[in-house]
Design goal:
Chain lengths: 572, 572
């Protein structure tokens, strides 16, 4: 497999071989490796020293269901630390067929021009794209499909990325033309700072990577699929409800961020939960869809497509985090409005989680009223899209927004906002949010812990093990959903690795690998200026009681402290 | 002498004795002591854990000219580190007569009410001041003088302090009713966060501190005065031109921040230099004044009062830093406009330096044009005064403004903007700006170095010695001007200390004392999260050439590094 390097200072493209020692590296592991090897951890994230790393996982391109996840990484302008943000879509499948596993974007143009990096079997080039400036992602994808004859996968940024907003994500196209966001950490701003509007990958490759032991491989793949199809969560619940299923649970336990994290239950949650979304799609039909696969071969299909009242397209897949952060957290109970905000965010190219957190703070400051759908829509589609002063401020994320509006109620860790899971009522998340090497987030790995969510003790060890499993598993290119599907049993992915690479690894190997991922990420962060003190939840979660259960984060300090015990991390 | 503590959570006042071991502590030294002893360095600066410390120097109240400087300190909301900001005015003279050397404001009211702390011989109380909310400092001082029968000294905040803006200062009244700002580091926001609108001190005290050896004291005082009166800088230049004299020099060497630090000389500098200011006052007369003393007994009188065209009051003392940062740095060449902006800043209660730096960044972003006096006036008197989103943003200082507007050109160190002295053309300032324990600033101590300003080498040792002298000298309560007046010869203040306290110290003692001040400040900063890496000038000063001399900061790294050599700091 090859690495493609595009130098945006010189507007030159280089192709090089993937080093043999990186053969089993992909996703978070490869991002961490390249960050530590090639990026000055103290550099300005939007300057020419940072790099944008785009890569699949170690098992990408082999035709394994849900293993072709796209990773986008580099130094985050939101957190100042390492970032790997991942998404579904067809990009990695198209790229693998061209024999390319990784794209590294370097340097920075000296002009304000924007470019498209076009990659196909026949030609790879940088095309001046200044004519597409300010186009939304949807608008751009439409143009790209027209220009390149439909059969392309795209990675792009919207106006927010062009304006280098820290809430800007990178957006990948899926099996149709819908968008899948690698939303968090401001990787869209890094892409914008490189003068790169889009990467367009022609789906005309024919490369097939070698599989050492084919029979063993097909057998391992069958077992993997069987396991997932026998799990009611991944076989029934997610295809039907998508991630939206989570909303009702969070609301019930009082962990759904509501009215800028001042409540944990939303009185109108019934109007925006998974069931309501399911019924809306069922009723309206049209282009509406449950079980929408974001990449070919997916067997979980947790995505959806939201139709408007006339059955026409309203929004790309609506996820729980969006429904929580742009819904309950802003006091909005209208699914149409939330779906439209989701569309706008995808089009403008911003992270719905960070956007919801930042707007929540602005609403508490009186910028508009909670639940004022019209004003909130305007804030997103006018202020953020056009980069007014308010838009630029919110576009800088919830931490800066809170600093400017002078509140210590910042629902963020390491500069990144918490997702739709208040750690006061879901206490395992206090550990996950705190310890994440990328700022508060569910994507660091979430447990299906047997410990009740309101219980203060005992979460650390369970959470830590899942974080490690997740780090290893994701680096292979798999989506998080499928890890739940195989019930966190690592023998499934390890069998696939063994068959492909003719190895004889055990599950301990993947655990050790996962630890290595996290330690490498942490190494970058420490070199960038982070310390152990950054691994803590904000004070207000410890002091301000969260209704309706009036809970605070009271996870014992020793649980945080022992997280980094050498006996765990150095044990292989 | 007594310490007055006002607890704003309980609305209670306590009087306690100044501990014997703090007898020689005052100003920066006492602020550092109280910060390290009583403030959690990791606390939220605008929360109830921070304290606002108001104190004179160790020699305050003894009738020594220029030794009654007011210090205002605590943890800075602008930098996150320690802050001591000082000002002239009559506050410390009035307070000393009441036998009070220090006021410590603690806690935070649970309501949004504001209070006045009224202190007199007969009565000390907290008065609800919510009726004065949103008044400017000038407006408030007028009210206070009316309410308390004129003979009062005041310390107050304007609307910016109430809104807890990081650019908000604390303003003291002078010998008349004009204002002297303790402007930098956001101490006005800390005062606002305590719900304290003003401290009003009735000038009815009769306390006279003990002088051990009176004859020796009067002789030492005579020598001190004689030295200053024989120095042409303090005897002639400052009384005539004030600090404005500096502008021409800075402009000539190309170190005057112009158009948001993109040039070092302003083509219209002649219109706003010390001479122009002198002529304006001379011509208009009316209330206009050179040689305005901010405190009784001052023999330098570097202050001025600016008359408008009709001879009526236009502005409090106009200083070089203001003329540089609100003039050249914003492309404004109209002295009337600059004086009016100065008045507005004092009235709103903000630091003219940080304001000029933040607006400079906003102008580069296109918020208004450089030199557009009308728009820039509106930004200050409308946006900042009323706290619009733009106002709140600029009110957060230049570092946050730059972060939101996505530029790495941040003319700040440790979160505080550089004053009107570009380190690229005045290279000694690269050391001073970098090493300051309080963020970039001239008040850390400026040399009259024989090394040419464009020379890259050799500044460190000279600068460091002045920083140390300054730290010790200021802690005694003296103003910076007088240190220039005595040509940095510490025997003058040491003689005064010996006479008053019946001691036998030498100048080495004051040097050691000065080192202790800086080390204590640094200790607080490190506990707050700073590291040695924060002692550096921003990268852009090293890379971007400054016209007209096309200079960059190229002070050798070893000069920064050796600044903290133990052999210097531990040597007593």
């Amino acid at each position: 497999m090859k690495i493609l390097r595009a130098n945006m200072s010189k507007l030159k493209i280089l192709i090089e071989d993937l080093p043999e020692e990186w053969k089993l590296f992909g996703g978070r592991r490869l991002v961490a490796e390249i960050c530590n090897k090639e990026i000055n951890p103290e550099c300005y994230p939007l300057g020419d020293e940072n790099k944008l790393i785009i890569t699949g996982g170690a098992l990408a391109g082999y035709g394994i269901p849900m293993a072709d996840r796209l990773s986008v990484g580099g130094k985050s302008p939101l957190t100042g630390g390492i970032k790997e943000s991942n998404a579904g879509g067809t990009v990695i499948q198209s790229l693998s067929k061209l024999g390319i596993c990784t794209i590294i974007i370097e340097g920075q143009p000296s002009t304000k021009d924007f470019y498209i990096l076009y990659i196909s079997k026949d030609k790879t080039e940088l095309i001046n794209a200044s004519v597409y400036k300010k186009l939304g992602n949807h608008e751009l994808v439409k143009e790209m499909r027209k220009k390149f004859n439909n059969d392309v996968s795209t990675i792009s940024i919207g106006p927010a990325g062009e304006m280098k907003m820290s809430i800007a994500g990178v957006f990948a196209s899926d099996t149709k033309w819908h968008l899948r966001p690698a939303a968090r950490g401001g990787m869209g701003a890094v892409m914008g700072s490189k003068g790169l509007k889009a990467i367009v990958i022609k789906n005309n490759g024919t490369y097939k990577p070698n599989i050492s032991n084919k029979e063993e491989f097909y057998s391992a793949r069958r077992e993997f699929i069987k396991k997932i199809m026998n799990n009611p969560e991944t076989a029934v619940r997610y295809p039907k409800y998508g991630t939206a299923a989570t909303l009702q649970i969070k609301n019930k336990i009082g962990a759904l961020p509501t009215y800028n994290f001042t409540r944990g239950s939303f009185e109108k949650a019934d109007l925006i939960n998974g069931d309501a979304l399911f019924r809306l799609i069922e009723k309206r039909k049209g282009v509406g869809q449950h079980s929408h696969a974001c990449m070919a071969g997916c067997i979980i299909k947790c995505g959806n497509i939201i139709p408007n009242k006339d059955g026409n397209f309203l929004s790309d897949s609506l996820e729980f985090e969006t429904m929580g952060m742009l819904g309950a957290n802003l006091g909005i109970s209208n699914l149409d409005t939330i779906a439209n905000l989701n569309y706008e965010c995808n089009n403008i190219g911003i992270d719905t989680i960070e956007t919801g957190a930042a707007i929540g703070i602005a609403l508490s400051f009186g910028i508009a009223n909670f639940g004022d759908e019209k004003e909130i829509s305007k804030i997103i589609s006018k202020d953020i899209r056009n980069g007014t002063v308010l838009g630029q401020l919110l576009g800088s994320g919830c931490t800066l927004t809170a600093q400017v509006f002078k509140t210590s109620r910042v629902p963020a860790v390491k500069g990144q906002s918490i997702n739709a899971s208040d750690p006061r009522a879901h206490k395992e998340r206090a550990i996950t949010h705190s310890m994440s090497t990328m700022g508060a987030d569910h994507t660091f790995g979430v447990t299906r812990s047997p410990i009740p969510p309101h219980e203060s003790n005992g979460h650390m060890q369970i959470a830590r093990l899942v974080h490690v499993k997740m780090a290893g598993y994701e680096s292979l290119g798999f989506c998080q959903m499928s890890l739940a599907g195989i019930e966190f049993e690592l023998k499934y992915p390890v069998s696939l690795v063994n068959a492909i690479f003719n190895l004889n690894k055990d599950t301990e190997w993947l655990l050790k690998y996962g630890k290595e991922v996290i330690l490498e990420e942490r190494k970058f962060n420490f070199a960038a200026g982070f310390t152990e003190k950054d691994d803590r939840i904000p004070d207000f979660f410890k002091k301000e009681k969260l209704p309706p259960f009036n809970l605070v984060v009271d996870v014992p300090e020793k649980e945080y402290k022992s997280y980094w015990d050498k006996s765990f991390w150095e044990n292989s």
